[in-house]
Task: inverse folding
Protein backbone atom coordinates (compact mmCIF):
# COMPACT_ATOMS: atom_id res chain seq x y z
CA UNK A 1 0.00 0.00 0.00
CA UNK A 2 1.46 3.34 -1.01
CA UNK A 3 -0.03 5.52 1.65
CA UNK A 4 3.11 7.60 1.98
CA UNK A 5 2.54 9.95 -0.87
CA UNK A 6 3.69 13.51 -0.50
CA UNK A 7 1.62 14.70 -3.45
CA UNK A 8 -1.04 17.13 -2.24
CA UNK A 9 -3.69 16.04 -4.75
CA UNK A 10 -7.01 15.82 -2.85
CA UNK A 11 -8.65 12.43 -2.69
CA UNK A 12 -12.15 11.73 -3.90
CA UNK A 13 -14.60 10.11 -1.51
CA UNK A 14 -14.38 6.89 -3.51
CA UNK A 15 -10.59 6.88 -3.26
CA UNK A 16 -10.77 7.56 0.45
CA UNK A 17 -13.38 4.87 1.06
CA UNK A 18 -11.38 2.34 -0.94
CA UNK A 19 -8.70 2.58 1.74
CA UNK A 20 -11.09 2.01 4.62
CA UNK A 21 -10.94 -1.80 4.91
CA UNK A 22 -7.17 -1.64 5.29
CA UNK A 23 -7.26 1.41 7.53
CA UNK A 24 -9.70 -0.21 9.91
CA UNK A 25 -7.69 -3.40 9.89
CA UNK A 26 -4.60 -1.41 10.80
CA UNK A 27 -6.49 0.34 13.59
CA UNK A 28 -8.51 3.34 12.55
CA UNK A 29 -6.76 5.55 15.06
CA UNK A 30 -3.70 5.11 12.92
CA UNK A 31 -4.51 7.34 9.98
CA UNK A 32 -1.23 9.12 9.39
CA UNK A 33 -1.31 9.72 5.67
CA UNK A 34 -1.76 13.47 5.07
CA UNK A 35 -4.08 12.94 2.10
CA UNK A 36 -6.35 10.75 4.17
CA UNK A 37 -6.38 12.99 7.22
CA UNK A 38 -7.04 15.99 4.99
CA UNK A 39 -10.00 14.26 3.38
CA UNK A 40 -11.34 13.12 6.72
CA UNK A 41 -11.09 16.66 8.09
CA UNK A 42 -12.84 18.27 5.16
CA UNK A 43 -15.45 15.69 4.10
CA UNK A 44 -18.45 15.39 6.36
CA UNK A 45 -19.80 12.33 4.56
CA UNK A 46 -16.64 10.35 5.02
CA UNK A 47 -16.00 11.49 8.56
CA UNK A 48 -19.57 10.51 9.51
CA UNK A 49 -19.03 7.17 7.78
CA UNK A 50 -15.79 6.49 9.65
CA UNK A 51 -17.37 7.52 12.93
CA UNK A 52 -20.38 5.24 12.40
CA UNK A 53 -18.30 2.26 11.33
CA UNK A 54 -16.00 2.69 14.29
CA UNK A 55 -19.03 2.98 16.54
CA UNK A 56 -20.50 -0.25 15.13
CA UNK A 57 -17.21 -2.06 15.65
CA UNK A 58 -17.06 -0.80 19.24
CA UNK A 59 -20.67 -1.69 19.99
CA UNK A 60 -20.10 -5.19 18.65
CA UNK A 61 -17.98 -5.99 21.70
CA UNK A 62 -21.14 -5.77 23.82
CA UNK A 63 -22.44 -8.80 21.97
CA UNK A 64 -19.68 -10.95 23.43
CA UNK A 65 -21.83 -11.15 26.54
CA UNK A 66 -24.08 -14.09 25.79
CA UNK A 67 -27.79 -13.52 25.49
CA UNK A 68 -29.09 -16.97 24.73
CA UNK A 69 -29.21 -20.20 26.61
CA UNK A 70 -29.44 -23.69 25.16
CA UNK A 71 -32.35 -25.87 26.29
CA UNK A 72 -31.77 -28.53 28.95
CA UNK A 73 -31.96 -31.29 26.37
CA UNK A 74 -28.54 -30.25 25.06
CA UNK A 75 -26.79 -31.19 28.28
CA UNK A 76 -28.73 -34.45 28.43
CA UNK A 77 -27.54 -35.37 24.96
CA UNK A 78 -23.97 -34.46 25.83
CA UNK A 79 -24.14 -36.72 28.87
CA UNK A 80 -25.52 -39.51 26.74
CA UNK A 81 -22.70 -38.97 24.26
CA UNK A 82 -20.11 -39.11 27.02
CA UNK A 83 -21.68 -42.23 28.50
CA UNK A 84 -21.60 -43.89 25.10
CA UNK A 85 -17.93 -42.94 24.82
CA UNK A 86 -17.00 -44.53 28.10
CA UNK A 87 -18.90 -47.71 27.28
CA UNK A 88 -16.83 -47.81 24.09
CA UNK A 89 -13.53 -47.55 25.94
CA UNK A 90 -11.57 -50.30 24.22
CA UNK A 91 -10.37 -53.27 26.21
CA UNK A 92 -6.61 -53.50 26.21
CA UNK A 93 -5.76 -54.93 22.83
CA UNK A 94 -5.08 -58.63 22.80
CA UNK A 95 -3.30 -58.61 19.46
CA UNK B 1 -12.67 -36.83 7.36
CA UNK B 2 -10.20 -35.14 9.64
CA UNK B 3 -11.62 -32.16 11.47
CA UNK B 4 -9.80 -29.21 10.07
CA UNK B 5 -8.22 -26.81 12.43
CA UNK B 6 -9.16 -28.78 15.47
CA UNK B 7 -5.60 -29.80 16.10
CA UNK B 8 -5.30 -26.29 17.30
CA UNK B 9 -1.98 -24.69 17.87
CA UNK B 10 -2.52 -22.57 20.92
CA UNK B 11 0.60 -20.54 20.32
CA UNK B 12 -1.11 -18.84 17.38
CA UNK B 13 -3.49 -17.02 19.69
CA UNK B 14 -3.40 -13.26 19.51
CA UNK B 15 -2.50 -11.69 22.85
CA UNK B 16 -5.64 -9.54 22.69
CA UNK B 17 -7.81 -12.62 22.90
CA UNK B 18 -6.33 -13.59 26.21
CA UNK B 19 -7.21 -10.17 27.56
CA UNK B 20 -10.73 -10.40 26.18
CA UNK B 21 -11.27 -13.87 27.54
CA UNK B 22 -9.79 -13.77 31.00
CA UNK B 23 -9.76 -17.04 32.94
CA UNK B 24 -12.85 -17.63 35.08
CA UNK B 25 -12.68 -18.45 38.77
CA UNK B 26 -12.68 -22.20 39.36
CA UNK B 27 -12.14 -22.91 35.69
CA UNK B 28 -8.51 -24.04 35.82
CA UNK B 29 -9.29 -26.56 38.51
CA UNK B 30 -12.32 -27.86 36.61
CA UNK B 31 -10.17 -28.27 33.50
CA UNK B 32 -7.62 -30.34 35.37
CA UNK B 33 -10.33 -32.52 36.88
CA UNK B 34 -12.06 -32.89 33.53
CA UNK B 35 -8.78 -34.09 32.04
CA UNK B 36 -8.88 -36.87 34.62
CA UNK B 37 -12.40 -37.75 33.49
CA UNK B 38 -14.31 -36.20 36.40
CA UNK B 39 -17.96 -35.96 35.32
CA UNK B 40 -18.77 -33.13 37.71
CA UNK B 41 -15.96 -31.07 36.23
CA UNK B 42 -17.49 -31.52 32.78
CA UNK B 43 -20.77 -30.30 34.14
CA UNK B 44 -19.08 -27.27 35.67
CA UNK B 45 -17.29 -26.39 32.43
CA UNK B 46 -20.54 -26.76 30.55
CA UNK B 47 -22.33 -24.46 32.98
CA UNK B 48 -19.57 -21.87 32.69
CA UNK B 49 -19.44 -21.82 28.90
CA UNK B 50 -22.74 -23.03 27.50
CA UNK B 51 -24.25 -19.58 26.97
CA UNK B 52 -21.36 -18.16 25.06
CA UNK B 53 -20.88 -21.25 22.93
CA UNK B 54 -24.57 -21.48 22.17
CA UNK B 55 -24.85 -17.75 21.42
CA UNK B 56 -21.89 -18.06 19.06
CA UNK B 57 -23.51 -21.02 17.29
CA UNK B 58 -26.82 -19.24 17.08
CA UNK B 59 -25.25 -16.15 15.57
CA UNK B 60 -23.30 -18.15 13.03
CA UNK B 61 -26.20 -20.42 12.10
CA UNK B 62 -29.25 -18.27 12.73
CA UNK B 63 -31.28 -21.31 13.71
CA UNK B 64 -32.08 -22.67 17.18
CA UNK B 65 -32.13 -26.39 16.47
CA UNK B 66 -28.89 -26.36 14.46
CA UNK B 67 -27.31 -24.13 17.11
CA UNK B 68 -28.25 -26.64 19.82
CA UNK B 69 -26.89 -29.53 17.79
CA UNK B 70 -23.62 -27.73 17.24
CA UNK B 71 -23.38 -26.74 20.91
CA UNK B 72 -23.74 -30.41 21.76
CA UNK B 73 -21.09 -31.33 19.19
CA UNK B 74 -18.74 -28.64 20.45
CA UNK B 75 -18.89 -29.79 24.07
CA UNK B 76 -18.61 -33.45 23.18
CA UNK B 77 -15.59 -32.58 21.09
CA UNK B 78 -14.21 -30.46 23.90
CA UNK B 79 -14.54 -33.21 26.47
CA UNK B 80 -12.95 -35.73 24.16
CA UNK B 81 -10.03 -33.43 23.36
CA UNK B 82 -9.57 -31.68 26.66
CA UNK B 83 -6.39 -33.63 27.31
CA UNK B 84 -4.71 -31.66 24.53
CA UNK B 85 -5.50 -28.28 26.10
CA UNK B 86 -2.23 -27.03 27.53
CA UNK B 87 -3.33 -23.67 28.87
CA UNK B 88 -1.28 -21.57 26.48
CA UNK B 89 -4.34 -19.62 25.44
CA UNK B 90 -7.49 -18.75 27.34
CA UNK B 91 -9.67 -21.80 27.62
CA UNK B 92 -12.67 -19.94 26.20
CA UNK B 93 -10.63 -18.85 23.18
CA UNK B 94 -9.65 -22.43 22.56
CA UNK B 95 -13.23 -23.59 23.00
CA UNK B 96 -14.56 -20.90 20.71
CA UNK B 97 -12.08 -21.71 17.98
CA UNK B 98 -13.08 -25.35 18.22
CA UNK B 99 -16.74 -24.35 18.02
CA UNK B 100 -16.20 -22.07 15.03
CA UNK B 101 -14.35 -24.81 13.17
CA UNK B 102 -17.10 -27.33 13.85
CA UNK B 103 -19.79 -24.92 12.69
CA UNK B 104 -17.87 -24.07 9.54
CA UNK B 105 -17.37 -27.74 8.80
CA UNK B 106 -21.09 -28.29 9.28
CA UNK B 107 -21.87 -25.44 6.88
CA UNK B 108 -19.44 -26.77 4.29
CA UNK B 109 -21.08 -30.17 4.50
CA UNK B 110 -24.33 -28.45 3.70
CA UNK B 111 -22.59 -27.11 0.61
CA UNK B 112 -22.48 -23.47 1.62
CA UNK B 113 -19.84 -21.32 0.04
CA UNK B 114 -18.75 -19.35 3.04
CA UNK B 115 -17.13 -16.41 1.42
CA UNK B 116 -19.19 -15.87 -1.69
CA UNK B 117 -22.32 -15.68 0.43
CA UNK B 118 -22.23 -11.93 -0.02
CA UNK B 119 -23.98 -12.58 -3.32
CA UNK B 120 -27.04 -13.81 -1.47
CA UNK B 121 -28.16 -10.35 -0.44
CA UNK B 122 -31.82 -10.04 -1.12
CA UNK B 123 -31.97 -8.31 -4.53
CA UNK B 124 -35.07 -6.34 -3.62
CA UNK B 125 -33.06 -4.72 -0.85
CA UNK B 126 -30.47 -3.67 -3.35
CA UNK B 127 -33.13 -2.05 -5.48
CA UNK B 128 -34.46 0.04 -2.66
CA UNK B 129 -33.52 3.71 -2.80
CA UNK B 130 -30.13 4.48 -1.35
CA UNK B 131 -30.14 6.28 1.93
CA UNK B 132 -28.58 9.67 2.05
CA UNK B 133 -25.29 8.90 3.69
CA UNK B 134 -24.59 12.56 4.22
CA UNK B 135 -27.57 13.51 6.35
CA UNK B 136 -26.14 14.52 9.67
CA UNK B 137 -29.30 14.23 11.68
CA UNK B 138 -29.08 10.45 11.56
CA UNK B 139 -25.77 9.93 13.23
CA UNK B 140 -25.51 6.49 14.74
CA UNK B 141 -23.08 7.25 17.52
CA UNK B 142 -24.73 6.89 20.89
CA UNK B 143 -28.08 5.80 19.54
CA UNK B 144 -27.83 2.07 18.98
CA UNK B 145 -28.65 -0.33 21.76
CA UNK B 146 -27.64 -3.92 22.07
CA UNK B 147 -31.01 -5.28 21.03
CA UNK B 148 -31.11 -3.22 17.85
CA UNK B 149 -27.58 -4.27 17.00
CA UNK B 150 -28.32 -7.94 17.66
CA UNK B 151 -31.35 -7.74 15.39
CA UNK B 152 -29.37 -6.02 12.64
CA UNK B 153 -26.58 -8.60 12.88
CA UNK B 154 -29.15 -11.38 12.59
CA UNK B 155 -30.46 -9.92 9.36
CA UNK B 156 -27.03 -9.67 7.70
CA UNK B 157 -26.37 -11.99 4.78
CA UNK B 158 -24.66 -15.13 6.20
CA UNK B 159 -21.22 -14.45 4.72
CA UNK B 160 -21.11 -10.93 6.16
CA UNK B 161 -22.50 -12.07 9.48
CA UNK B 162 -19.85 -14.76 9.79
CA UNK B 163 -16.92 -12.39 9.39
CA UNK B 164 -18.51 -9.70 11.55
CA UNK B 165 -19.20 -12.14 14.40
CA UNK B 166 -15.74 -13.67 14.18
CA UNK B 167 -13.88 -10.37 14.02
CA UNK B 168 -15.88 -7.70 15.80
CA UNK B 169 -17.68 -9.83 18.36
CA UNK B 170 -15.34 -12.74 19.00
CA UNK B 171 -12.13 -10.82 18.43
CA UNK B 172 -10.39 -13.12 15.96
CA UNK B 173 -7.74 -11.55 13.71
CA UNK B 174 -8.12 -11.37 9.96
CA UNK B 175 -5.39 -13.92 9.36
CA UNK B 176 -7.14 -16.41 11.63
CA UNK B 177 -10.49 -15.78 9.96
CA UNK B 178 -8.89 -16.20 6.56
CA UNK B 179 -7.58 -19.57 7.69
CA UNK B 180 -10.95 -20.63 9.05
CA UNK B 181 -12.92 -19.51 6.02
CA UNK B 182 -10.26 -20.56 3.52
CA UNK B 183 -10.08 -17.12 1.97
CA UNK B 184 -7.45 -14.38 1.77
CA UNK B 185 -6.97 -11.82 4.54
CA UNK B 186 -7.88 -9.15 1.98
CA UNK B 187 -11.15 -10.95 1.46
CA UNK B 188 -11.77 -11.10 5.19
CA UNK B 189 -11.08 -7.37 5.55
CA UNK B 190 -13.36 -6.45 2.69
CA UNK B 191 -16.16 -8.74 3.90
CA UNK B 192 -15.93 -7.15 7.32
CA UNK B 193 -16.07 -3.68 5.83
CA UNK B 194 -19.12 -4.58 3.76
CA UNK B 195 -20.74 -6.12 6.81
CA UNK B 196 -20.28 -2.92 8.81
CA UNK B 197 -21.58 -0.83 5.91
CA UNK B 198 -24.63 -3.06 5.69
CA UNK B 199 -25.16 -2.81 9.44
CA UNK B 200 -24.97 0.94 9.24
CA UNK B 201 -27.63 0.90 6.56
CA UNK B 202 -29.83 -1.49 8.55
CA UNK B 203 -29.46 0.46 11.77
CA UNK B 204 -30.23 3.75 10.05
CA UNK B 205 -33.23 2.21 8.38
CA UNK B 206 -34.56 0.85 11.66
CA UNK B 207 -33.97 4.24 13.26
CA UNK B 208 -35.88 6.08 10.57
CA UNK B 209 -38.67 3.50 10.70
CA UNK B 210 -38.88 4.02 14.45
CA UNK B 211 -39.01 7.76 13.94
CA UNK B 212 -41.74 7.41 11.30
CA UNK B 213 -43.74 5.22 13.65
CA UNK B 214 -43.49 7.81 16.40
CA UNK B 215 -44.68 10.47 13.96
CA UNK B 216 -47.55 8.32 12.78
CA UNK B 217 -48.60 7.57 16.33
CA UNK B 218 -48.61 11.28 17.05
CA UNK B 219 -51.04 11.99 14.18
ZN1 LIG C 1 -15.45 11.97 1.35
Result:
Amino acid sequence: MTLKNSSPIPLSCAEFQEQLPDLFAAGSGAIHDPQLTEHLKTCENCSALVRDLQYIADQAKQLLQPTHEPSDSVWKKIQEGLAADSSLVPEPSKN
Amino acid sequence: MEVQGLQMTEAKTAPGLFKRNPPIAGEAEAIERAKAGDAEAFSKLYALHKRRVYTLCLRMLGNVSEAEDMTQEAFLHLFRKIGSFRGESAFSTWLHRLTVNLVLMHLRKKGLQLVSLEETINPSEEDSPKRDFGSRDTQLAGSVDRVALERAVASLPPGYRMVFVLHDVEGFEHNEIAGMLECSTGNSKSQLHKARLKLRELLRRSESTAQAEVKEAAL
Summary: Residues 90-95 of chain A have pLDDT under 50 and may be disordered. The first helix of chain A runs from residue 13 to 18. Chain A is about 55% helix and 0% strand.
